What we know:
Layout (H helix, E strand, L loop, with lengths): L3 H13 L4 E3 L23 H5 L8 E9 L20 E10 L4 H15 L7 E5 L4 H11 L6 E3 L4 E3 L4 E12 L19 E14 L5 E14 H9 L8 H14 L6 H21 L8 H19 L11 H8 L4 H5 L1 H33 L4 E2 L1 H11 L3 H9 L4 E2 L1 H11 L12 H15 L3 E2 L6 E11 L2 E2 L3 E2 L3 E6 L1 E2 L13 E5 L2 E11 L3 E10 L1 E2 L4 E6 L1 H25 L5 E6 L4 E6 L6 H17 L4 E5 L1 H6 L14 E8 L6 E6 L14 E10 L2 E8 H22 L6 H27 L11 E3 L2 E9 L3 H14 L3 E9 L2 E8 L9 H11 L5 E4 L2 E6 L5 H13 L1
Parallel strand pairs: 1-2, 4-5, 10-11, 12-17, 31-32
Antiparallel strand pairs: 2-3, 3-9, 4-7, 6-7, 7-8, 8-9, 13-14, 13-16, 13-22, 15-21, 16-20, 18-19, 18-22, 19-20, 23-24, 24-29, 25-26, 26-27, 28-29, 30-31, 32-33, 33-35, 34-35
Helix pairs in contact: 3-4, 6-7, 7-8, 7-11, 8-11, 11-12, 12-14, 16-17, 20-21, 22-23
Amino acid sequence: MSSLNQLRSAFINYFKDRDHLVIPSAPLVPQNDPTLMFVNAGMVPFKNYFTGAETPPAPRAVSVQKCVRAGGKHNDLDNVGYTGRHQTFFEMLGNFSFGDYFKEGAIEHAWAFITRDLGLDPARLMVTIAPDDDDAAALWRKIAGLPDSRIVRLEENFWSMGDTGPCGTNTEIFYDHGDHVPGGPPGSPDEDGDRFVEIWNLVFMRWEQFADGSRKDLPKPQIDTGMGLERIATVLQGVHSNYDTDMFRALIAASEEATGVKAQGEARFSHQVIVDHLRSTSFLIADGVSPSNEGRGYVLRRIMRRAMRHAHLLGAAEPLMHRLTPALVTEMGEAYPELRRAEPVIAETLRQEEERFRRTLGRGMSLLEEATGQVGPGGVLPGETAFKLYDTYGFPLDLTQDAVRALGMSVDLEGFDVAMKRQKDQARDAWTGSGQAAAAGEWFALRERLGPTDFVGHDQGEVTAELLVLMGEGAEIPKAGAGQTVQALFDRTPFYGESGGQAGDTGEVEWQGGRGRVIDTQKQAGDLHVHVIEIESGELAPGARVRLALDADRRTTTRANHSATHLLHAALRNVLGPHVSQKGQMVDGERIRFDFSHGQPLTLEEIDRIEAEVNAVIRQNLPAETKNMAPEAAIEAGAMALFGEKYGDVVRVLTLGRALDGDGAYSVELCGGTHVARTGDIALFKIVSESGVAAGVRRIEALTGEPARRWLLDQALVSRQLAEQFKTPVSEVLGRVEALEAQRRKLEKELADAKRQLAMGGGGAPQAGPEEIGGVQVLARVMDGVGGKDLRPIAEEFKKQIADGIIALVGVAEGKAAVTVAVTGAAKDRFNAAELAKAAVIAMGGQGAGGRPDFAQGGAPDGARAAEGLAALKTAIAG
Length: 879
């Protein structure tokens, strides 16, 4: 029972048999906690239970939680792969008590599981406790029979998940590998050795800590425990590195096979980086995170690119990471079904990102090798160089640090920060959360007090309801009057609160003596429908009976748009492939905006096929079917779940249409939004735009029903107007446009040729020849009507005439000036084209020029100063 999969099951079963509710792992993106980048501890999903903001589903719970630590306080990224204990992704085994058992129960369970079920030798176990925790010391003596010599009191035995949140003293259990392994017990000078390894942390939660350092007692004492699955596996498997456990050995074997390089010497570190980062990136993608240049997406990109650099070090000629995905799914797909479901998306995202990074990786590594060669071993890489690698070649800072550490070098972090500030691009490394946390606490408190809002909007558009709470400026208020905008909670409502990409409903509210407009509806604390109301007349106070009526026309269109996104999602997967997954959407009463994973623009043929499929299902006019099911049962039945979405105990399953090429349904998804009664209610679907919004993410905008019909009529009107303008049938308009475009290109070329001939002295126009300035031949001219793009070919022609000298041209077009300077022959030893061009540009009010020492160009806003620019250039030549 020592494999990771066996250990995971054994832990769950032990606590399940002792009346603990089994809680599946939450997604890595925290739900309802904007202060955290990722879930980084097993207790994170239970934070509101510990603080009393939410009622736990049971007094006892057990979970195996996916965790990522790669940013902020818990940033282990620079050590990952180089030590046996550091990982970006890990699994945390945890049992929890919400006011049920406390210290004695926690210690009893821990001791029984590790000594009886896992069979660890009690003589090899010792513990640490807080200095003044006499209760814990007495319990360890009583339950485990530990002598005081194996109960160590340490100041650091206090645990919190950050600057704020639940906290308390803790006790940690250590395993002694034996005196043949270097290292001392916890608290000793050589405690960092491998002999004593911490395997389980039991936290006795008693307080909630706030940003100002103050604490208050929790409603009840709580228990939060955490045991790293990988760490306990090393003990049971008799190894000292997490990377030597069974799961990592299997992944490293796959990496060895794919690269043809054995995990020996320095290559071992690269393999370890790759397989750890494969786990974290795959699970992040499965939970809905996409690589980007800010926030969570940038952390994902940092991890991916660090792994990709190590693949480069191993000599991988082709993208590697996506080829390892099947091995990961084999090892972990049974425990985490979301990984198996997302496998096509994971593989495609990894492949695209690695191909993108490989385009700049080689050039960036060349720059880095050149820079480190200049600095020398043991030196400091300039911050400007690190920033150039970051900004130009996409090297995250920690990737550069990782690359130079093997040379015994470091990076000038202060210089890097200065360059970053100058670029004014702090977003990608600055995750500070937001002020939403306090507001979220208020909503959770109301949810506990009032219960969920009874949403009846699936079948009703108008109801009578009771006003329960009025909120203004983040606090409850006793009443509100005309001219005020407030937030209101009712006992029941037909208004849908914005969630799942569906916009909140709007409409009206009336009560005796007053009325108002509902301008938005939001969802808070999971299932509170919060109405944003502009009061037009009268006074409104809790307890009032009101009539709530939503905007029926807007709801009808919103419903059609939402159902159409389900059909669109299915069509995209049918036409483009199973790698397509929804990355975001917004549907309202006007249009659809749907973001999805795909690495390239859609062709016109693909768009036509997608539209045709959706409209074919619409024409089936089949009833929409909804069922309430457990999430696991729904997914097993074929329903598509959105990556990273956390579902409750019961989910609503929406089935639309019949498959176009076989048996079964066309679309089956989990969704709590509002939808059409029949597919025919959508009437018509039309894609109006397709574009890229991020690396590997495309966006479709579309219309349905009457808005789609109006859009098509507008397009038809434009086509008829063009046909009238060209005096040709509509079917021949495209041909006429193509002919005009060809004619335009021909005339532009003829005009450019004529300008060049005039500039060169053709067409009978007299032109001054070269002159000698500062001992060099200089051909300097101002050319009216010649823009920047035309100067280069003219300069190339003049270079044929002046084999040793300088060509300096200032073109003036549309009121602006352009400068081109070419230096030929021996003159290149004395003059720099970029410096000469810069002198002219500055004289004309511009900023500077760019290019090579032998050829440079620049521009200036004031073409009237062309003569000044040319004069300044001549002065610079004369010296």
